[in-house]
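REQUEST FORM: STRUCTURE PREDICTION
Request ID: SP-0412
Submitted by: Lab K.M.
Chain count: 1
Length (residues): 1013
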Amino acid sequence: MGAARTAFARANARVGVLASIAAVVLLLSGLSTAVIDSLAGSSASGLRGSLAEAQGTAGAARWQIRVAQDPEAQADAAASVLDRMISPFDASWSRTIETAPVDATSGDTAFGAVLLADPEAAERSELVDGSWPEEPESIAAADAEGAVPATLHAAAAEALGLAPGDVVDLAGGSARRLLVVGTWLPLEPSDPAWFGEGIIATGATADGAGPFLVAEASALDLPAAIVVRWTALVDSAAVTPDSARLLRSELPDVEPALRAEPAIGADGLSALGGLEATLSRLLASLGAVRAIAPLPILLLAFTGFAALTRLSTLLGAARRGETVLLRARGASAGRLARDTAVEVLAIGIPAAIIGVAGAQALLMATRPGETRDPGTAAVVASVVLVGTLIVVAGRAWLDARRPVVRGAGDEVGRVARGLATGGGVLLVVLAAVAFWQFRLYGSPLVASASGALEVDPIAVLAPMLVLVALALAALWLTRPIDALLERLAAARPGLVPSLPMRQLARRASLYSAASLVTMLAVAGLTLSAAFSGAWQGIDRTASALATGGEVRVSYAGRDVVQDPDPLALDDGLDGVASITAAGPVYRGDVRIGSDRATVVAMPSGAADRIAPGTGAADAAAALEESAAAAGTALPNGTSALDVAVTLAAPAGTDGAVSVSAWFLTEEGAATPTAPVPVDVAAGGGPVSLDVPAAEGLRFIGLGASLAGASGVDVLVSFGPISLDGSSVAGPGFEIVPEHLLTSKAPNARATLTGGGSDPLPVVLSTELAERISADVGGRFAFRVLDGSAEVDAVVAGVLPVVPTAGDDGVLADLAAFERYTFDSGAGVPAFGERWIATSEPDVLAAELDREHGSSVIADARSASSSAPFIAPAIAALWIGAAGALLFALISVVALVAALGGSRLGEIVVLRALGVPARTQSRARLAELAVTLGTAVVIGAVVGFATALLTARELARAAVSGVPAVVPVEFGVDLAPWLIGIAAFLVLAAAIAAGAAASVRRMASRPGLRQEEG
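STATUS: Completed
RESULT:
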C-alpha cells in the first residue's frame, strides 16, 4: 500500500474525530469573524448615526472674527487653512457673513435688521413666498427700486408686517435700501449648519429681526459689527472612526493656524461649537468597544483551542497502535506529523471558508448597510487554521516521538507535563501583571498625551487572563477535591458512588480538558452576565443624568423673557395619557469668576416626579423654602391687576411708558402681561393689566419701559395695587414705588419689598464645590450669560452630579431663580426645556417631534444611551459565551469518546466479576455528572469572582463621560445567564445519558471480550 493510500485509510478510519476538529474550526472561524466584523461595522454605523443625530452646536465647529478690510484675502487665507486641516477628514466647511442688528425702518416701523450672507442657505431652507435674492428677476426688481434684493425670514416678516415688494431703509453713512423679494423658513433649525442660532428658528433676537438673506457685498460696510464665520460639519455618511479620530486631533489646532495668517487678523478670533466635544464623546464610546472586544475573542480562542487540544489527544490515543506499527516499519515522526497536517488542511480549509462565509452572509442579512472588510475574514481563517495545525500536528509529532505508550490516552510525558505547568505559571504571572495594570488605571482605557482615551494593550487583557488563571487554579485544586470525594464515597456501601469517585481521583488528567473548557465557558457566560448587568445599571443612570426627564423637550430660539410667554402658561401636553408629570427647566451657562459652569433651574417640589432616577429630588428639598418665598400668590380666577401710574417729566415731553405686571406660574416660569402704554404728556393715569388665565400664579412685580422720549428723564411712581377692583393690603403686594427712566436706562423693575431670597440658595455638584472651595452655608457669586444677571448664592447642599450639567452643575429652584433675576434688573432667562415623566418615553418623543416639527426637539433617555455602541459589544460577548459553551459540549463528546475507547477492558472485567450492566451505566453517568456539575459550579464561581474584580470598571469604561462620583452598582443579567446554563446542562445531560446507555448496552452483551470492542 502506497503512502498516499495509507494516509487516506488512516484518515477514513478516524473520520469522526476529524469531523469534530472541522466543526471546531468552522465554529471558531465563523464566530470570531462574526464578532470582529459586527463590532467593526456597528462602531462605524454607531458613529455615523450619532453624528447624523447631532443637533445645533453639538454637530458643528465654528471660527469667527470681524470682517477684514480685505475680505477676499481674508477668505483665501482661511480657505488654505481649512482645506488643509478640515477637508481631508470627511468634513466640509462653509463661509458666512452676518451683521449685528442695523438700525432700519420700513414705513413707520423701526427695528434692528440682521443681514446674513450665506450662499448655501437656500439648500437648507424652503421659499415661502417670492424668490431668492440671487435670482435674475430679484436683482432686476431691486435695481428698479435702487435697492438690493433680500429674502426675509417668514417669522420676522410676519412680526414686522413686511411682505415681498416692501422696502427697508438701513441707517448709517453707508445707507442702503433693501427690497424684500421673498420670505423663507429653515427646513430644520436644529441642523448643525445653522449652528443653533435662535434667530434662524424664530426670526428674532433680543434687539433685532431677520435674517435678511443678501449677497455678501450687501452685508459689508454697514454701521454695525460684521462678523465672518467658518462653520465645519462632518459628512456623517462617509466618516470613519479613523477620520473622526484625525479630525478631532486637528480641531484644537485650527484656531492657532487661523490666527497665524496675517490676512485673517487676530483681534477677536474665537472658536465655538461642540463638534470637538461630540467627537471626543463618540470616540470614547468607540474606545469602550475596543476595550470590550478582546473579551469574546479571547474567550472563543481559549475554549476553542482547548477543545482542539482535547480532540488532538483523542486522535492520538485512537492512533497509538497505528503509530507504533508505522514507526516500527520505518515511518518518521515528521512524516506522520506531515500526514496529520495534510488531513487538517484538507478538512480545515473548507471548514474555515464555510465558517467565515456563513458569518459574512449572516451579518449582511441581519445588519445590511454596514461595511465589511474581507481582510478580516481572511486573517481570522488563517489564524484559526495555523493554530489548528500547530495543535493537532504538533500533538501527532509528540505521539510519534513516543511510540511506546501505555494505551490509556490520558497519560502524558514529563516534558509535556512540564510544558503545561510552565505555561500555566506563565499565564498566572501575565494575569497578575495585567490585573495590576487594570487596577492602576481603574479601566482598560487610559488618557493619551493628547487627552484622548486609548486602550491599554495590557490592561485590556486583564479580565480574560484573570478568568483563565482562576480557572487553571481551580483545575489544579480538583485533584485534592476528587481525593476527598473518593474518601467520602468509600465510606458508603456499594459500587456507586465509590467506583466513579475512584475513577475521578485516579484518572483526573483524562477529565481535565473537558472540565477546563466547561469552567472557562461557564465563567465567560457569568462574566458576560455580570458586565451586562453592571452596564445596564450605569447606562440607565448616565442616560438619566444626561437627559434629566424621561423625555426632554427643548424649545428653539429662547433666551430671555420679554413678552407674554405662551409656553409658560400652556405646555401643549394636555390630553397625552402617557404623561405622568412635566415641568419647565432653565439650563444655561454661567460664569463663576473665570470658570464656566451650568445652572439648572427646575421646580424643586416636582424634582422627584419630573426627573426620576437622577438623584435630584433629595437635594432639591433644600431649595423648597426659596421656592415658597419666590412670589405672592394671586387668588385663582383673578382677571385684572390695577395700579395707578404717575409720570413726572418736563412739559411737552413726548413718548410713553409701557407698564406690565410680572408673574410666576405655578411651576415657577416667569411671564409678563401685555404692556399697557401711558403717555408721558398725560402725566399718568390708572392702568389695568390683564392677568393670565392660569391657576397658581404668583406676583413678583411691575415693569416699566420708556420709548419715544429721547434725552428726557421720566420719574415713574406706582400707587397701590388692586385685584379685580379690590385693593390688596399687606407686604405681599408692596412694591418699590418710584423709578427714574432715562434714554440710557429706559427700563425699570418695581420689585416687591418683601419675600424673595438673597442670597439665592443653590445646590452644587461635588466636583464644582471642591473646585471653588464651597461648603454648605458658604457664599459665592456667578453671572448668568443669558440676561447677564449677577447672582449672589449660598450653598444649600451638594449633589454628586446635577442632571444635564455634569461635574460643573449649579441647581436652583426655577421660581426663586426667576424672581432673583427679575429683582436684579437684568434679563429674566426664559426656560428652554421641559422635562417629562412618561410611561412611553420613546413613543412620546417621536410623537412630539412629529407634531411640533423643527420648533421642538424631543429626546428620550434612550437618545443619551451608550447602547448604539455597547449593545453590539454585549451581543458579541453573549456570542462568545455561546460559542464557548458549544466548544465545551464538543469537549464533553471527546471525553465520552475517550472513555469509551480506553475503558473497554474495565467493562469486560467488571462484567466478569458480576457487576450488573445497570450499575456500570450508573457509575459512568455519575462520573460525568460529577465532572460536569463540579465544572459548572466552579466556572460560575470563577466568573463571579472575575466579575467582582473587573465588571464594574468595564461597565464604567463602556459609558463615556460618567463622573467618577457616580457609583457603578454590581448586577447580573440573569435571564440569558440562566438560559445558557440550562441549555448547556440539558445538552450535556443528553450526551452523558447517551454514554451511560452505550456502557449499559456493551456490558449487557454475553461473553463480551475486550477485543470485541
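NOTES: Residues 917-958 form the longest helix (42 residues).
Reviewed by: T.R.
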